[in-house]
Amino acid sequence: MLVAVGEALATMRVVVTGANKGIGRAIVERLLRDYSDVHVYLAARSAERGVAACDEIAAKMPEAASRLEFLEMDVSDDVSVRRAADSLGPGPLYGLVNNAGIGFGRGFRDALQTNFYGPMRVCEALLPLLKQSDPAGRIVNIASASAPNFVNRCGVREHRDVLARPAASTLDAVLDIAKSYETMTDYEDAAYGLSKACLNALTVFLARDNPDLVVNSCTPGYILTDLTRGMGASKKPEEGTKAPVYLLMDPEPASLPTGRFYGSDAKRSPLDRYREPGTPPYDGP
């Protein structure tokens, strides 16, 4: 289901998943505020909550209401994702922000289904539209610092090697790793970190297989959302938009190698260890 708030379409269409609240919604609002040539599809699983979010944003930013639409999409469901892709129509899509995700304490199967397989199926469905874009279409996968932390602590050397340097491996190897964890019981919130590490690896393969697109992942930072409530996070969702919006809209990423992982300060970070924001960017392979 696609619900329009206004009528006019801007030049560049962008889909943001999991956008009815938190960081996703903050990204939507910043795009509407700072880029008058962007038309945003606020994608969410719940039509009720998604439409309500659109109405609230339109009331707060009436000048941008014509550039906002709700797009019903459950990233964990193949049929829902395909229906959403079809509702976008045949025109080019400039950007996709894979923000939808679930947090800690949900188990390996659920975490992988939403945080890894979800972005994979969304990308598969929307790649034909992204490839029509001029300028080059962009994909931004919202990962987490939990990803390099998981890789760094991973006790299975073969898994650590693949997730630390996916360019030297294959997507099938990453899928095998994910499958090997699906029936395990979560420990120390490893499920979330694994799912985001797999998402970072997927980013590498998407970039390699689609050189005409600009594909990167990032951590938005330790932001207070429903995922982190009660865990010491204090930053507002707006503070989590720096890296995602940079990767989506700034000219610089289009001139750099893609398939990279960026910290919340919009600087490149390694896949296998945490880099503190504000420290020198990672310059390795």
Automatic annotation (TrEMBL):
<dbReference type="InterPro" id="IPR036291">
    <property type="entry name" value="NAD(P)-bd_dom_sf"/>
</dbReference>
<dbReference type="GO" id="GO:0016491">
    <property type="term" value="F:oxidoreductase activity"/>
</dbReference>
<feature type="region of interest" description="Disordered">
    <location>
        <begin position="251"/>
        <end position="285"/>
    </location>
</feature>
<feature type="compositionally biased region" description="Basic and acidic residues">
    <location>
        <begin position="265"/>
        <end position="276"/>
    </location>
</feature>
<comment type="similarity">
    <text>Belongs to the short-chain dehydrogenases/reductases (SDR) family.</text>
</comment>
<keyword id="KW-0521">NADP</keyword>
<protein>
    <submittedName>
        <fullName>Uncharacterized protein</fullName>
    </submittedName>
</protein>
<dbReference type="Pfam" id="PF00106">
    <property type="entry name" value="adh_short"/>
</dbReference>
<dbReference type="InterPro" id="IPR002347">
    <property type="entry name" value="SDR_fam"/>
</dbReference>
<keyword id="KW-0560">Oxidoreductase</keyword>
